[in-house]
Amino acid sequence: MRNPIILSRRHVLASGLALGASAALGPLARAAAPVKVAGIHGSPVENAWNSVLHKALQDAAKDGVIEYVFSEGVSGTDYPRAMREYAEQGAKLIIGETFPVEKQAREVAADYPDTAFVMGSSGKEAGDNFGVFGTWNFDGAYLAGMLAGKMTKSNVVGSVGAMPIPEVNMLINAFAEGVKAVNPNAKHMVTFIGTFFDPPKAREAGLAQIDAGADILFGERIGTADAAKERKIKSVGSLIDYTPRYPDTVFANALWNFRPILNAALADVAAGKPTGRDYTAYGLMKEGGSDIVYVKGVAPAEAEAAMEAKRAEIKAGTFEVPKIMTEPK
């Protein structure tokens, strides 16, 4: 075995708790021992996307379903080595992200056929043990766009994103489509900061959009709401609920919950089924994996009513938010 990874922080959670509300996991709930799971986070776990994964994994550990160890801030160049280290240390399931190392990650997985890898990815699943998932909270982004489209006074809204990969594009495009559905004359500006975690850079991008006329910002990246707060305009958050942190600024959030994806992967591992599949759909709103949360009374009452009606259609499966993966213009 190689030497252990040198971590910026490593945290092992106790796993001797009762299973709690995990009966839905089927074979996993009946497993004799918790599954050993490693999380490899390319950004600090404070980053919104990583925090969603981290919380789901922590909660599963508290439920006694898994034993959890993780690394954070792992660079793309070091990522394949981290995957190998955890596989050699006996992790049965490795959760993480392979956006910057798609080819190399699949090569690692092929070398460890007895380890399940389920990774955030822009690519496809591979073999029996390399599964993928996308961050599909675009349903909530569309609904937030419906509110923003009726709230803007300047008729200009802005979005600040990481980089134009399909998952980010789809999220920002959904927000724009929601705005367009209720306000076809509104202008939508988009800025990519070129990295997944740089709050000061996201703030600067937001300030530039405000200077160009935007009076509502969609923050796909942390830091966008800081610009909105500074200039006293409204903002939409993504992945987690930012309203408690920005009570007078963030009025709506496109939430994403990783636990349904994790549960599905864990059930496959416990049942000895292949994990080389796409788990993305478990994160959709109609599956309970995403939603919108908003502060009532900020948007006009008729805008909230129209949004709630559309939300009900999405949950019922009678309306599908457009999945537009091309780079927003």
TrEMBL record:
InterPro entries: ABC-Purine-Binding (IPR052910), PnrA-like (IPR003760), TAT_signal (IPR006311)
GO cellular component: plasma membrane
Segments forming domain ABC transporter substrate-binding protein PnrA-like: 46-321
Secretion signal, residue range per the UniProt entry: 1-23
Keywords: Signal
PANTHER family, sorted: ABC TRANSPORTER SUBSTRATE-BINDING PROTEIN
Name assigned to this protein: BMP family ABC transporter substrate-binding protein
